Amino acid sequence: MPYKDETASRLAARERQRRRRARLKEEKALAPVVSLDRADAVGALAEWAAANLKVPPGHPLAGKPMAVPPFALDFLRAGWNAHESALCVARKNAKSAICAVLALGHLCGPLRAEGWRGAIASVSKEKAAELRGQVAAIAEASGIQVRVRRSPYPGAIESPFGALETLSADRTAGHASGFDLVIVDETGLLPERGRELLAGLRSSVSARGGRIMHISVRGDSPLFAEILSNPATVAHVYAAPDECAIDDRDAWAAANPALGTIKQVSYMEAECARIAGVPSDEPSFRAFDLNQGLSPTREMIFSPDDLRKCFADDPPPRSGPAYLGFDFGESVSGTSAAAIWPATGRLETWLAFGDIPALADRARRDSAPYIEMERRGELRTYPGRSMRVQAFLSDVQADLSGVRVAAAAADSYKDSESLDFLDRAAVRWPIKFRRVGAGKDGAADVRAFQRLVLQKQIAMAENLSLVTAIAKSTIRRDGNGNPALDKATARGRIDVLSAAIIAGGLAEPHFDRAHRPRWRYLGMAG
Asked: What is the pLDDT of residues 167-213, one digit of tens each?
């Protein structure tokens, strides 16, 4: 609508001219625009960031130039033209800096383009807003003029050239939008119900030929595991080995490429010392600081390091009666057995799968080192999609030839099936059935096995299958605090632990520590 007041019209025209002059001045101060298809786009972005961006207050390097670490530049170059890319790295390795440099480079740096649209999504709108706030803080510390819009929550960051929106983490996010770039924060912590969110985000970049970039810890999300294992994803993963000790400095470096520059070694040292007195915090440290595929909030039965203290270079003999625990699996889960000899404390385990799908495919799906377990003789495969349990039992019986089995037990949930398996295998061991939940039997078995391990009453050869199972284990508790092994969200990798827990419940009452000989632990004097 035209102005009727000439004075107001002149003032409005003058304001438009002022804004144009300010924008021209701002553009002159900016780095030259580079083509997104050019090979030097990442290099130009890094140079611009070092010259124009500053570390915000509250950081030990506050006020210093914002340098993009080499590992991040390698990732950005590798995934520059990929539809979907993923940087999987432990926390406090410049994740916010990477997001800020990339976003601000598009909004007002060398990658700017009129009408550019980007988005940040995370496991919750609060986490997304937090990341948006960190990008805004870097812009403010650097004197870059952007508009921070906080309403509607969780807000956006805008410049004369484009906008970076913050998306609510719900299943409708992104469906009605069109973006050039979507940064997904902490995909590794997304639950299965986040599948619709990811579908919406992928749809949101379809019209603009955009791309999706994930920056996250591994977590235990099946969605992120699928993304990382997909050959179409350009994925750079920095993670400690699953079986590592928490104070392994090589493992620290493997998961933290910015260790010693951005993330402090003193922090890792202090956390390891603290966790020694608070073992329940170990899963969080492994998930966030070693970038292992774990949920940071779960409770393990005990630490893998606790089991390693029971490894012996010369395990005690099979002496006296043995007590067996079984966990009979089907097509997806494993079938397993464990034997404990109370007279000497010896522990042995067996694990088996059907050979369809191939063991390598199972290993990728379960994120478990099944190939190495097979090479070490800890795992066997049998023909078919479903386990031939009677063949497995026959082999275990042959392995235990000459051993007196005092008792054997399995989950009472499959008591009839278990009896059929034993009959078909011509096994005549005395069998019991125990409730494996958080009730009387299950809680007692978990506590018994914990005591046997933590008090080092058992000894065994190195056992990768049991270490892996413990690292993947989750303990749930009922209203009275009784523990039980939670198998609802786990795959076959924890079945060997389930069998060992049942064997521990049977065997512990028969331990006579006063008369058991001592053994020599791996790397330790007895």
From this structure: 876 655 555 578 999 999 999 988 888 888 899 899 999 888 899 99
State the Cα–Cα distance between residues 324 and 57, nearest whole angstrom: 60
- C-beta separation of 44 from 61 below 8 A: no
CA 408, 331, 478, 453 torsion: positive or negative?
Answer: positive
The reply to whether the predicted model has a pTM over 0.85 is no
Token digits of residue 190: 């997304």
What is the percentage of the chain residues whose pLDDT exceeds 70? 85
| Measured torsion, CA atoms of residues 99, 228, 300, 437, in degrees rounded to the nearest 10 | 130
Q: Give residue 471's pLDDT.
A: 81
- Token couple for 506: 């049977």
List of residues 6+ apart from 408 with CB closer than 8 A = 323, 324, 325, 326, 429, 430, 431, 432, 506
What does DSSP say about strands 405-411 and 322-327: parallel, antiparallel, or unpaired? Answer: parallel
Compare 513 and 347 and report the one with higher pLDDT: 347
The mean pLDDT of 28-33, rounded to a whole number, is: 56
On the question of pLDDT at 288 being above 90, the answer is yes
Helices marked H in 30-115 — which ranges?
A: 41-52, 70-78, 95-108
- The amino acid occupying position 363 is A
Q: Which residues contact residue 399 at a Cβ distance below 8 angstroms, ignoring those fewer than 6 apart?
A: 350
Which residues does 221 contact at the CB level (< 8 Å), separation at least 6?
187, 188, 189, 190, 191, 192, 194
Q: What are the structural domains of the chain? A: 21-237 (3.40.50.300), 249-298 (no CATH), 305-510 (3.30.420.240)
Assess whether pLDDT exceeds 60 at residue 513: no
Local structure of residue 517 (DSSP, 8 states): P
